[in-house]
Write a structure and sequence with these properties.
The protein is of the alpha/beta class. It has 15 helices and 13 strands. Strands 10-9-13-12-11 form a five-stranded antiparallel sheet, with helices on both faces. A four-stranded parallel sheet has the order 6-5-7-8, with helices on both faces. It has a two-stranded parallel ribbon with strand order 1-2.
Amino acid sequence: MIVPSSNTCLEPTTSRMLSEIDGVSVHFARVPVTRIGLDPAADRQFGTEPMLAAARSLADAGVDIIAWNGTAGSWLGIDHDRALCATLAEATGIEVTTSTLALLEACRAYGVTRLGLVVPYTTEVTERIRAVYRDAGIDCVTAEHLGLTDNAAFAGVPEARVRRMVTAAGTRDAHAVAVVCTNVFGAAVAAGAEAELGIPVFDSVTATLWRTLRATGARVSGWGDLPWAGNVRNEFQRTVEALLDATGADRTTLRIDLPKLGLQVDLTAAEALRDGVRSIRRDASLDQRRLNTVEWLEKHRELLVQDHFRDDPQPPIALREVYGVRAQMLGPVVRDEAMAGWLSVHSLCEREWGEADRKSLNVAVDAIAQVLDDAEIATRSLRPVVTE
């Protein structure tokens, strides 16, 4: 982790989150950062040379991944962080990410396009963040900020104050709330705020650790949904996106009952869309298990391929009239002899699903099964958390 020099939050928080994970260590290098603003002097704190020196010092330790554990890309721009990652990776030969990129990956994994924003920064910095995120396809529908510029002071904001800000930001139909700063103690309030709001709370420190742990498959409990379920969510999303590309469909979704991760079939666990296609992700208006098509899947446990809807089993009227679907394929996901869920492939016009389309759906079903197997192994590998 490359750390802003005046940060006193992320190191102890990261170490606490890692306390239940065997076989993973975290190492830190600091770069001079003391003030957050939009002026040239503030921007120069995030220049390439200090980052390169820090990255090279971490490379000496043989680390597997490097993260710039700071959120400057949220106002300097996503391309700034991508270029930084490319430069550091070329210099060290090690994978590199940033807190901002991790937050955006979390939003993608959870299908978040409406975000509640919590920051300690000034109005000007906050508005710049909103603009940057808007360009990335995420509308910050609410924004709570404190008007601070001194980076060291951010860590002095009481957790109770952070919690109130998170609660206030989780309104106006926000899909999630993000605490965008790695020197604000937001990680500890995430789980409680999620229970209150009913939506994910992404803390920057938590998101960065989640992203850097991805290759290990490790899951961290007690710090909100992202470090616990985020890996599975991310793989689900990658699978439906690959299925969309492979079939040329208009929409692909996954519905699955996975109580340990807070997932159930009446809401999609993942969705991929063509431009201009209406999302179905947050529509829980139907009892999915009682649909004709799902009952058919439950009975036959094989692909349901429908080039049109003139024959039985008939899909729900809402799928046709509200979402405009005219053809579909459904693939059952079977676990321990029970149908845990299914993948759906939708077309907004009648079409003949070819052998390649069916093969792609079967590949996706197998991929979901592998994700579930990996998640079970990761869960079993966790040591129990001992609390006093």
